């Protein structure tokens, strides 16, 4: 086995570099790197300059392996990292029951991999899992996860559920932990107290690494 046989790219879109979403992602990546041969990199995208996809279709005509998109901005190196990883972990805070705007912008820019001249279906058969952190448990967690999973499906990536963990669309965690009287705790990093979500994140990423390895080592062409 080569030294690294599964490279993970984790991307989170919270404006808080040490906030709940960053914590959940880090927790997940740390679990994965306990497995031999796994490398992981984490990128925080909030505050970066990531323009909207202009739908100019330049990627269909002019794309090269070095220039993936007509727009050169902070998304450019991230798009290359996405192309080159084996396992992509997208982590977003829940904003109005869906993924954050920054994450949506970055995902839109990955269109250069659906129709790109060089990178046509470049993400096909990579594995993708989603993490989401909301303030409450039932205020948009699953719709956020589904909006992230939709991106994986468009790219013909493999998405996973983990039934024993109850993580069917990925892992949703709660940041707004409450006291017995329903008042909120002072702790702004409540995700640390969501033990179930942290466990689910560990289970799901382990399964994702195993799946990425099976897919990579498959000698049969995948449909
Ligand atoms: C614009 C905005 C919209 C939000 N919408 C929701 C929501 O629909 N449901 C929810 O549970 N939390 C919502 N929240 C709260 C965040 O999801 C929550 O605070 C989460 O912990 C943020 O993660 P972070 O600490 O990594 O930034 C919203 C926060 C913001 C700023």
Mean pLDDT metric: 94
Text of the CATH class: Alpha Beta
CATH architecture: 3-Layer(aba) Sandwich
Counting copies of identical and different chains, the oligomeric state is: single chain
DSSP helical segment count? 6
Q: Spell out the CATH superfamily.
A: Flavodoxin domain
Q: What's the number of structural domains?
A: 1
Q: What class, by secondary structure content?
A: alpha/beta
Instruction: Please compute the radius of gyration using only Cα atoms.
Output: 17 Å
- Estimate what percentage of residues fall within beta strands: 15-25%
Number of strands: 6
Bound molecules: flavin mononucleotide
Instruction: Let me know the largest β-sheet.
Output: 6 strands, parallel
How far from one another are the termini? Answer: 26 Å
């Amino acid at each position: 086995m080569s030294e690294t046989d599964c490279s993970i790219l984790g991307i989170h879109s919270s404006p808080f570099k040490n906030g709940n979403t960053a914590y959940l992602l880090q927790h997940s990546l740390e679990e994965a790197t306990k497995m031999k041969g796994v490398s992981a990199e984490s990128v925080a995208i909030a505050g970066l300059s990531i323009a909207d996809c202009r739908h100019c279709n330049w990627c269909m005509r002019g794309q090269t392996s070095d220039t993936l998109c007509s727009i050169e901005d902070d998304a450019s190196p991230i798009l290359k990292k996405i192309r080159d990883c084996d396992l992509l972990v997208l982590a977003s805070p829940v904003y109005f029951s869906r993924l954050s705007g920054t994450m949506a912008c970055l995902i839109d820019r990955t269109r250069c991999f659906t129709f790109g001249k060089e990178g046509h279906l470049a993400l096909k058969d990579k594995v993708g899992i989603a993490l989401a952190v909301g303030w409450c448990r039932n205020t948009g967690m699953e719709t956020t996860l589904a909006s992230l999973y939709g991106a994986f499906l468009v790219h013909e990536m493999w998405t996973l559920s983990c039934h024993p963990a109850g993580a069917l669309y990925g892992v949703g965690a709660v940041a707004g932990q409450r006291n017995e009287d329903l008042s909120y705790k002072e702790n702004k990093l409540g995700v640390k107290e969501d033990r179930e979500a942290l466990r689910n994140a560990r289970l799901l990423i382990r399964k994702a690494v195993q799946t990425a390895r099976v897919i990579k080592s498959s000698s049969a062409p995948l449909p």
